[in-house]
Amino acid sequence: MASKLEQIEGNIYQLETSRESLLRQLAEVDKRLEVERAQYAQLRNELVPIHSLPNELLAFVFADAHALLRANPFLVETSRVCLRWRQVILHTPLLWNTLVMTVTSGFKGNVAAQEYLKAHLRRSNDAFLDMIVYADTEDPTDLSLFFDTITPHAARWRRLSIEMRCADINMVRPHFANLDAPKLRHLSFNVCGTPEGRSFMSPRAPYPTISPQIFLNGLPELSVLRLANASISNLHPQSTSIQTLHIGGWESAYFTWVQLKSLLESLPQLQNLSLHDVCVRHNTRDPLDQPSPIHLPELRSIRVHKPFTPMDRILPLLTVPKLEGVSLYDMEYFDCTEIPSVKHLLLQASAFDELHFEHLFAAFPNVEDLTVDGDAYQLYEAALNQLPKHPWRTLRRLTVHELTATDVVAFALLVLKRKQAGVPLTTVRLDKKSRHVLRVKGKLDLLTEHVDVVPYDEMEVWPPGRGYDDPHDLV
Prior knowledge:
alpha/beta, 14-stranded parallel sheet, 3-stranded parallel sheet, LRR_dom_sf, coiled coil
């Protein structure tokens, strides 16, 4: 019996040894198979048409897709497709020079978020930086760490847009006070609230100052500036090269006329002005005591959105000899003295009645290009009621968004009446909804017989020719 056990024990040992040898061989085969499969996949990838693209063109495709999709994981996921794509993505700075980021509460302890930020800054190398940031944290340590991370790269900033839900201005300002940003062209600050808060019933107070407090060494290339809410009077940069100015009013404060005049006239190259929910007080109760005019000799376009102060208290006091474009958003009434230079007029979410349309006709008699939406439903009746005078005799292009079914007849009649009177429209641009409503009402074919009807579903960009996305736009 003992010899039998020894024999079986020897057999087991030999079998286990053989098994271990076979497993080692199998592991080696698996490794070789993995290598061969990887090489095979790589060679097959090289036969795919897109693999024949040079690295420069491939990088351009990635950049275009990244900008279009606006998805943070796009670059990471695409870099996993193959080794070549990963190398192209990691070594193309222009794929990393646009940072869209939300700084959440607890950023100081969020290693992943910090590494994401540092990766963009590192991989963008020496390329210019476009940064779009929303700070959804009130913790000053989070904000300080974020600012400390990005400010060493200020020399590369091209566009910087920062929106903060709530921030201590006295903590924010020192981070930007003495920075040098020679390439910065677009700067946007919107501080929606401050820690000290404000009672809903508290009266507005004048802004404490309009003098520069940040970038005190100057911004020689700055052309676009937006200051909104608590940023006004607290985060003004030192620059006289600004061509486009966005002002977003704060419910806690108002401009004195002297402050507004000082701010606007300090910008000799100002061409585009946007006023959002702005409150301006003349500091006088005497209606005969008119403030001194604000001279804006280069201003070409003005946009007004939901003004707290009526425009008849502001626009007539602007000296604007070159003003060509006026955009009015979310307004209930309008009145202004005549500005004959205006050729382009946009009305959006502004349900004027007939009287205020008459004021528009009188204020801007030489309009050539008009854009309206469904809220301007009384425009067509107001214009027809002026017959045979025909307001806006120079009008040649009309763009309509969201035409309603009840306005179809008046709209079509206005187009036909203008043609009969010898002041025809040359082009009518219609969005998808407007074309559908006209088609259902049987008027679309009729219009095409008398005017060039062009499908147009794009929203107007302000200022015209901006050329890039501005996600922090207040309108």
